[in-house]
Amino acid sequence: MGKRLRGTVAVVCATALASTPLLLSPVGADASPAAMTSRAAVPQITATLTKKTIIVKGAQGLRAGRVRMSVKGQGIVEFAKFKAGYDIADFTADVNKFGAKNDVKALKRAIANTTIIGGFAGGGSGTIVFPRAGAYTPIFVGPRGVVSGKTLVVRGPRRASSVPRTDGRIIAKNGPSWGGASNLPAKGRFLFKNRGNTGVPHFVLMQQVQEGTTVDQVLEYLQSGEETPPPWGLPAFMDTGSLSPGRSMTVNYDLPPGQYAVMCFFPDPKMGGMPHALMGMIKMIHLT
Question: Taxonomically, which superkingdom (predicted)?
C-alpha cells in the first residue's frame, strides 16, 4: 500500500490529470452495473484501454445525457471535452510540459481548456453524463504520457434520465476538502460530485487503512517522502476518473469492510502542482 501511495504521488506530480499506476490489483472490484431506474433507456458504452489507444464500443448514435460506462484494461479511462482552438494534441503537449518541467502554466492551460466528465479504472463501472452535444475524447494519463482514442461526436438534444439510486455521496469541496457520507455499505454505488466552486478537477482514491488510523498519520506519511510502506496500510483500494467543477458521476464498487482514507491527488495549479492530498484533502470513512 505504501508503494501504491508513493507511486500515485510521483505519477500525479509528473502528469496533469490522473492517478494511474495500478501497483496493486483492486480487491473485489465490481464491474457490473447495479440495477437502476430511469425515464429512458440508459445506453451502455465500454472503453478498452490498450498500450496505444482506447477503443470505445456502444457509442454509435450516442446522445447527450447519462450513460452507463465500464472500463477494461490497466488504467483509468475518462472523457474530456476541449474548448474551440484547443485539442488532444495541445492537451498532450501541456501534460508533457507539466510532467517534464513542472510547468504550472501548462497545467493551468490544460485545466482551463478541458472539461473532464469522469471515468473509471479498469474493471470499474458506473454512469457519467455527456452534458451537451459535441465532441468528447477518451483519455488515459499515465506515467508514459497521454493515451487517447477516437473522438466521439455526441448528438443532441439531451436525453432525459434519472440518476441511479445511490447509497451515499462523496463530495469534493473548495478548500480543498471532502464532504458527504462518513459511512457506506461495503458493496454498492455512490454519487461523486465536484462542486462548482472548487475551481479545479478532483477524483476519488479510496484506500483501506487499519482501524483507528488518523488523517494526520496519512498526511504525515505522504508529506514525508517515505518509501517504506506505513504500518497502517492495507491493500484494498479503488479510484475513479476526474471530474471538472460542477460535474458528477455514479460509481459502482465492491470492497472489503473496514476503514478507508478518501483522497484526491490531482495537482493544484495554485500550489505549484502539489497533489491535493498533500494539502490535506483526506477524509476517513467506514464501509460496513
Answer: Bacteria
User: How do beta strands 152-154 and 125-130 pair?
Assistant: unpaired
Residue 53: partners with Cβ closer than 8 Å, 6 or more residues away: 147, 148, 149, 150
Closest CA to 152 of 139, 163, 142: 139
Q: What phi, psi does 105 have (nearest 5°)? A: -60, -40
The count of C-alpha atoms lying within 13 angstroms of the C-alpha of 63, restricted to the half-sphere facing its C-beta, is 11
- For 65-101, write each residue's pLDDT tens digit: 999 999 999 999 999 999 999 999 999 999 999 999 9
Among 275, 281, 279, 280, which Cα is nearest to 13's? 275
> What's the pLDDT at 40?
58
Residues across the chain: 288
Residues 6 or more apart whose Cβ sits within 8 Å of residue 218: 209, 230, 232, 261, 263, 277, 282
Contact 229, 2 (CB under 8 A): yes
Give the count of alpha carbons within 13 A of 163, CB side only: 15
135 Cα distance to chain centroid: 20
Q: Beta strand 76-82 with 44-49: parallel, antiparallel or unpaired?
A: unpaired
Distance, in Å, from the CA atom of 81 to the CA atom of 274, rounded to the nearest integer, reads: 24
Strand partners, 190: 168, 251
State residue 27's pLDDT score.
Answer: 35
- CA-to-CA distance for 284 and 161, rounded, in angstroms? 32
Q: Supply the Cα-derived Rg of the chain in whole angstroms.
A: 18
Residue 138: strand, helix, or coil:
strand
Place of cell 454512469: 127
Query: Measuring CA to CA, how many Å separate 159 from each of 46, 129, 155, 163?
Result: 19, 10, 10, 12
Q: What is residue 271's DSSP assignment?
A: G
Asked whether 156 and 133 are in contact (CB, 8 A), the reply is: yes
Q: What is the pLDDT of residue 33?
A: 36
3-state secondary structure of 7: helix
